[in-house]
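Input record (one chain):
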Amino acid sequence: MIVQALGAWLAVAVAVMPVAVAPAASATPSPGPCTPIPAAKIGFQLATVMGGFMPPGATPLPSPDPARMRAGTANPPMPRSAPAPADFARYLKALRKIGFRRMERFGGTLQLPQEQYARILREAGIVAVSSHGALEPPEWEAELDRARALGQDYVGSWGFGPIGLDSYEKVLATAENLDRLGKTAAARGLRFMVHDHDAALRFRYPYDRNGDGRLELTTAWEIIAARTDPMALRFEVDVHWALKGLGDEDALVRFLIRNRDRIDLLHVKDRTADGAVTDMGRGINNWPRIFAAAGSRIRYYIWEYERPADPLRSAAIAYRYLRCMPAPDVSTPGS
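The corresponding structure, as predicted from the sequence alone:
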């Protein structure tokens, strides 16, 4: 990542939020230019760290079904067995020690009794603020119940539901379904959001986006946004998948600016030049530019990294980068 001039960096940081600037020059610098995010807005996706505490073979991260991923209908899988409660508790406490206070749930309650799951989070000082679950019954109803019981702000999914995005007619039906689900969630006191993979931004159809009778190629994501109630449906943009769907960072920035009034959460994960996920601040994404484009209304910045070799080490790198803190001693896992 190219290091920008200090003046440009400050301009971008101030555009996002008026918080403290990066550490003094005498400290060990962050890996790349950064925008300091408030600690209360930083979270982690539980799936990212599950390899550290789930029993062998239980981590619910199989390779997604290619056909469902292409159609935009993939659902998050449920775990096959529960973690040892003590292991789960120790891991959450380690993440809290790093600095994380917020978590995005994955896999229901990991096959643990809900009361026990809630107690482990509470004793670790971690608050579940959102979740990824299936949108089909009966799991949808169960997910609403869990989200309410755990005091979440948001409930949602890592996809757009069971209908699909691979035809214009399916996009319209998906929008109608999501609007209905969102109003159901709102009646329960929850905000409803969906998370994109590349399909939502790769599929494009002629659409009268501006209401002037002129058709233009429009992403499935934006058609759904246009045809749903903003009070019923919000969005979590996964930066990595959005880059894949849109093609490059310039297109992503334009997309974020154009749609920032519907985006409440970001999945933040960095990438290498060949498109692989890597540690935050150590890839090629220009995060100050991306965060500025998303705007100051983002409620949560959720760190995600599929299958990191050492989840606690990567978590420490990510948290410190997002806070513009000195880089951790990565020779010590979980430092």
